[in-house]
């Protein structure tokens, strides 16, 4: 019970990654360790600096890493909230609640494919660090910004990893072809986990359906509360019921949600 | 100096403190039970329920705005029977007031809901939602016409037995006092005001509305002045206890509503801003009363020099 309590945590670091300020849009936020008894990679936290009444909501971020050294969140500046967050200085205090939602499945003996698009790579760092058999993991990472802006180097050595830098038209197709190949390779006896932009998740969902691979996808919808109350982040499940991404997800088995609400599931 | 008296006496209901949570912002209470002790609240109002389950409106349904937010959830809920079967048995109703918020599209349906919920020992009061701006039928349509508001109030009151009936008013009206009088004349025991204000937000680059429903209900600190004005007007128009709702986020906000004449308050959007907000308030209210030399809420209530 206690582990989800809302806490005020001190900021230890909040630094740009792979680029100098003020141009950087990629940041690593390190907060003091909240003392959680347990958490699962793929879960998230709600983060709200003391930014006054103008910004009403906290912001949801997947947990990149969490241990006694601190709670680490990796974020990209995309709007008003993350712009303000980027200006928070070490020593300031931030309201944090979590760990929230359902994380990724961890199967020690199963070859596991990690599919990451852009900032979606963040939760897989913690996943790889916590995994009992990281040599079973294979990361395929597609990104548009230079690699140094992502926590790619943070993966433990036994993880097989490859990155696909999308710079030219056609690169995306090469990346998706590689993803398809690897999903097929993991279809018979593996596990596929994906985190990234919605079109990428749709593609992975379709590949899992086509190949019969067991796959989980992590969704991120706009949400106000993170605890299942505001009903803002709902997504249609396979039966057409609208379920909260924050509490039923953010990680779903890929056949449990309908990412194309226009089409019947 | 002894601890200030936070208790609130309402028709058929005594609250240990004036802090309730607003319908639609606190789930069924259970979602928040890891952030505080539900029993420490004056009470909480359940997510609005209808006879049949509802899936609500399409996404996107929420948008953040300056000092507030818009929502067009459209009363997604599991239906009254599932609430009674699955939620009520898990709530600490002996220790705190659990209020059912009712939504229907006709006076008859409202009556049916009242029968179902008033019969439950877990339910301390019924709140009648005649003010939801996000549904096509019923909702605010009832709350914008004194005659309809009166009919719905009467339908619920006649079937509620001894369970007190709260009517939740809409600010989206020309004369809120007229609606308040219609509810009072038809048996309402209390009024809560206000529900959200109709609003919209747009995305300039995409040239689209930011809510699939186009319109939504505005809530949060942005609407507090409107809520205070409505409580003030309603208290002057009718002799019923009023529960203030709208942008309340701190102890000072709570006491401002009491000053204007509210008996109790509901915390809404602030539950999203930080999930332990409501749980922290009773202690913060007591501390602020202490600082201001106020012994009881009765002593402060309605003493605005205006």
Description of the structure:
Chain A has helices at residues 80-85, 122-130, 171-185, 198-211, 245-248, and strands spanning 7-16, 26-31, 44-49, 59-62, 65-67, 70-76, 93-100, 112-117, 137-143, 160-165, 191-195, 215-218, 234-236, 242-244, 251-253. In chain A, strand 13 (234-236) and strand 14 form a beta hairpin. Chain A is α/β, with parallel strands linked by helices. Chain A folds into 2 domains: 3-100, Elongation Factor Tu (Ef-tu), domain 3 (Beta Barrel); 112-218, Nucleotide-binding domain of ferredoxin-NADP reductase (FNR) module (Rossmann fold, 3-Layer(aba) Sandwich). Helix content of chain A is 18%, strand content 31%. Chain A has 5 helices and 15 strands. By secondary structure, chain B is of the alpha/beta class. Chain B has a single domain (8-58, 77-200, 218-300), classed as Alpha-Beta Barrel (TIM Barrel). Chain B is 31% helix and 20% strand. Chain B is built from 10 helices and 16 strands. Chain B has helices at residues 80-87, 107-118, 140-143, 146-159, 176-185, 224-237, 251-260, 270-273, 277-292, 297-300, and strands spanning 8-10, 13-15, 19-21, 43-45, 62-65, 68-71, 97-102, 123-129, 165-169, 190-193, 197-199, 202-203, 208-209, 216-219, 242-245, 264-267. In chain B, the strands form 4 sheets. An 8-stranded parallel β-barrel of chain B has the order 3-4-7-8-9-10-15-16, surrounded by 6 helices. Chain B is globular. The two termini of chain B are 30 Å apart. Classes of the chains: A alpha/beta (265), B alpha/beta (306). Chain A binds chain B through residues 1-2, 4-6, 48, 53-58, 95, 97, 221-232, 234-235, 240-242, 247, 261, and chain B through 24-27, 31-32, 34-35, 47, 55-56, 58-69, 71, 73, 76, 220-221, 249, 269, 271-276.
């Amino acid at each position: 019970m206690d582990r989800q309590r809302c806490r005020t945590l001190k900021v230890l670091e909040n630094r740009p990654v792979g680029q100098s300020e003020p141009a950087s849009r990629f940041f690593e936020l390190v907060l003091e360790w909240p003392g959680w008894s347990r958490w699962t990679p793929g879960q998230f936290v709600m983060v709200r600096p003391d930014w006054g009444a103008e910004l009403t909501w906290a912001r949801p971020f997947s947990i990149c890493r969490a241990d006694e050294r601190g709670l680490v969140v990796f974020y990209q500046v995309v709007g008003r909230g993350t712009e303000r967050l980027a200006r928070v200085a070490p020593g300031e205090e931030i309201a944090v609640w979590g760990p929230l939602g359902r994380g990724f499945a961890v199967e020690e003996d199963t070859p596991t494919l990690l599919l990451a698009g852009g900032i979606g790579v963040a939760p897989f760092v913690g996943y790889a660090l916590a995994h009992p058999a990281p040599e079973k993991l294979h990361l395929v990472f597609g990104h548009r910004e230079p690699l140094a802006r992502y926590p790619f180097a943070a993966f433990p050595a036994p993880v097989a990893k490859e990155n696909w830098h999308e710079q030219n038209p056609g690169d995306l197709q090469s990346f998706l072809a590689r993803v398809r190949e690897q999903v097929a390779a993991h279809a018979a006896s593996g596990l596929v986990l994906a985190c990234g932009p919605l079109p990428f998740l749709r593609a992975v969902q379709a590949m899992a359906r086509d190949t019969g691979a067991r796959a989980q996808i992590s969704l991120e919808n706009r949400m106000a509360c993170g605890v299942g109350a505001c009903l803002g982040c709902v997504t249609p499940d396979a039966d057409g019921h609208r379920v909260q991404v924050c509490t039923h997800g953010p990680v779903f088995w890929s056949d449990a949600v309908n990412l194309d609400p226009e089409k019947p599931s | 100096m002894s601890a200030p008296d936070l208790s609130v006496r309402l028709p058929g209901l005594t609250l240990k403190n004036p802090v309730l949570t607003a319908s639609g912002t606190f789930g069924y209470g259970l979602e928040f039970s890891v952030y505080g002790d539900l029993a420490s609240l004056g009470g909480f109002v359940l997510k609005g329920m209808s006879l049949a389950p509802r899936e609500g409106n399409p996404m996107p349904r929420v948008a953040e705005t300056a000092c507030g937010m818009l929502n067009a959830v459209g009363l997604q809920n599991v239906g009254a029977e599932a609430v009674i079967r699955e939620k009520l048995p898990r709530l600490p109703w002996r220790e705190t007031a659990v209020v059912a918020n009712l939504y229907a599209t006709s006076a008859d349906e409202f009556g049916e809901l009242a029968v179902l919920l008033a019969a439950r020992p877990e339910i301390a009061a019924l709140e009648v939602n005649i003010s939801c701006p996000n549904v096509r039928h019923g909702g605010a349509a009832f709350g914008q016409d004194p005659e309809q508001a009166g009919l719905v109030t009467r339908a619920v009151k006649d079937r509620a037995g001894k369970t007190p009936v709260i009517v939740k008013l809409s600010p989206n009206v020309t004369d809120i006092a007229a609606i308040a009088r219609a509810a009072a004349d038809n048996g309402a025991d209390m009024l809560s005001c206000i529900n959200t204000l109709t609003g919209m937000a747009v995305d300039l680059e995409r040239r689209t509305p930011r809510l699939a429903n186009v319109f939504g209900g505005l809530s949060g600190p942005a609407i507090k002045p409107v809520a205070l004005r409505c409580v003030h007007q309603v208290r002057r128009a009718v002799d019923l206890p009023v529960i203030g709702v709208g942008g309340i986020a701190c102890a000072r906000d709570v006491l401002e509503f009491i000053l204007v004449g509210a008996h109790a308050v509901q915390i809404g959007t602030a539950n999203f801003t930080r999930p332990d907000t409501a749980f922290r308030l009773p202690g913060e209210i007591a501390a602020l009363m202490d600082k201001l030399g106020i012994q009881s809420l009765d002593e402060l209530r309605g003493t605005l020099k205006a």
